[in-house]
Amino acid sequence: MTESIGPRSAAEIDTWDYEADVVVAGYGIAGVSAAIEAARAGADVLILERTGGWGGAAAMAGGFVYLGGGTAVQKACGFEDSAENMHAFLSAAMGPGADEAKLADYCAGSVEHFEWLVDCGVAFKPTFYGKPAWEPPGDDGLMFSGGENAHPFNTIATPAPRGHVPQMAGKRTGERGGGYMLMKPLADTAAELGVKAAYDTRVQSLTTTEDGRVVGVVARQYGREVTVKARTGVVLATGSFAYNDAMVAQYAPRLTGRPAASIEEHDGRSIRMAQALGAQVAHMDAAEVAIFVDPQLLVRGIVVNNRGQRFVTEDTYPGRVGQLTLFQQDNQAFLIIDGDAHEEALAAPSATPMLLRPPTWVCDSVAELEAAIGLATGSLQSTVTAYNQSAALGKDPLLHKKPEWLRPIGTPVGAIDLRESTGGFTLGGLQTTTDSEVLHVSDETVPGLFAAGRSTSGLAAWGYASGISLGDGSFYGRRAGRAAAKG
Predict the structure, then answer these.
(1) How many helices (H) and strands (E) does the chain have?
(2) Positions of the chain with pLDDT under 70
(3) Integer CA distances (angstroms), 138 to 79, 317, 328, in order
């Protein structure tokens, strides 16, 4: 049986099982950041977490936090940046419909946010990793993570790396990677501030007064219903709806059957609870899309669609390749690469073994490969001929791949089938102010209700850069905590 998401009247509740000034739903990056700031503002804080411990999707992530404007790590690595330069990039890269007020706000506060993280104990090694990769193979603390140095963005803003990765001693990707190294000191900081947590507690609905103010939540804990009173505010931070099949089918159908870079607890509950109060949502059809092939392979080949045509510069952020493949090419893509280039990628130290895929087809000529894939006769041949002629001159007039990756495609030649190689997570959610107040469809705020992280529509709309979710979640989690503490 599915419990109701509709609001519960506070007048019906005689006894509260828990009570705090600020109640935070979700102990991931947004939730812990909200709890820290609320506690520092003097509030008594309780976090409700449906699993058995802190972490959420953040603890399982690669750990990039998208920060810029001249952080200490950027300066130590010899890169100049400014809030204006960062804003110019994000305005172009986050896609149509991105929230300009939030983008400007985030860029202006980015350096201070970096310093806040460091003050909370998050360590960043001041070294730069400059090779194509999903994440640094070692413990380097800075990397290009959004295609800042690729066309067209390198013509819009001065390229500056902004993917800040927490120090990763004893790194184990997916278990104790950068995301864990980010969450652990923040969770420790919250505990030191006296933040309390109730685990195995899943929020079910919001409680409200007659005038519509949110004053708590109803949750399930060990199979029983519990009521939780929030004296000044409730913060929703339970993640996206990537693992809610019905919501994905309704709002983001191209992601159906291919969730990735998320966790099963991201079931959209917070979004639906707030919608039941009339909350406004935005960009529910938008998604970040990973493409499951190593960047070291991508940069050494060319990506073509089912017409044999290139459609993206292969040295850009691989998430951009994934988005364009799924949303603009109907998930039809092939990576064309010759034998020498494939061997070079296999030997690259930054490559991820599980993403170093073998060719699906290998042929002695492009014409044979074209036929093997099933492309129209002459389509791939004309693309490779044009690419090779320009690459021999160190140019890519079509898509402007950087000269260092331009080399004519030789033989034997292969193709990696990328048609079922995409998966992602949702970017849409609750519409919030820059103070993380949840907006009603009337454009007024819902009193007592705040939200942050992937349950909101944050910085990204129809674009992405690795680190935006953790940056957005922690930055606006802080805002939510401060605002909730004020009531």
Answers:
(1) 15, 21
(2) 1-2, 168-176
(3) 20, 19, 34
